Amino acid sequence: MNEVSILSSSPLRDVIEHWARSRIDTPLSLIGRYDEGARQVLALAATLQGAYVAILSFGDFESSAPTRIGWFVVVLLIPAMFFALRCICTVSPKMEAMNAYKLVERVASHSATAADVKLAIQEWCSQVDDQVARKRRLLHGANLSFLFGSSLAALVILLMVIP
């Protein structure tokens, strides 16, 4: 059996198409999940910051020392918000639609070779993988910053409230 008939058989072609779609869809869905996770961290950090500001603004504290420490605690959640925003807003410029449009235009005009298409797909897959890795690191930073900041903030607020 020659190589062409093996690749043109329907079951093998279906498997290859399935894996090609999975190779593209899985990292793209990961990007969406990382963005959603970052939005949740951002919403939680902003809500906690608002709660801490309300406690510090309307709380009845005998001295101003806890209030000064409390305002410092509000600042502790800023790194979590920064990492979460960076995760949401990170987009690779090479993943924009213009490069795909130019490739399709070259294919349509028959000026692109199979090697050009293969190289373009490899570069795009590499960009998606890089984007996923970058977002994973940023979301990890947001999570760690949030855990550290909110734990320390809760501790300080607790120490301010307990006589």
Mind sketching the topology for me?
Blueprint: H1 3-7, H2 10-58, H3 65-76, H4 78-89, H5 97-108, H6 114-161
Structural class, by secondary structure, is mainly alpha
User: Which range does the strand content fall in?
Assistant: under 5%
Distance between the termini: 85 Å
Helix segment tally: 6
Sheet with most strands: none
What does this protein structure show overall?
The chain is mainly alpha-helical and 163 residues long. It has one domain (3-161). It contains six helices and no strands. Helix 2 runs antiparallel to helix 4. The termini are far apart.
Q: What is this structure, in a nutshell?
A:
This protein is mostly helical and 163 residues long.
Sum up the structure in keywords:
single chain; 163 residues; mainly alpha; 6 helices; elongated; disordered N terminus
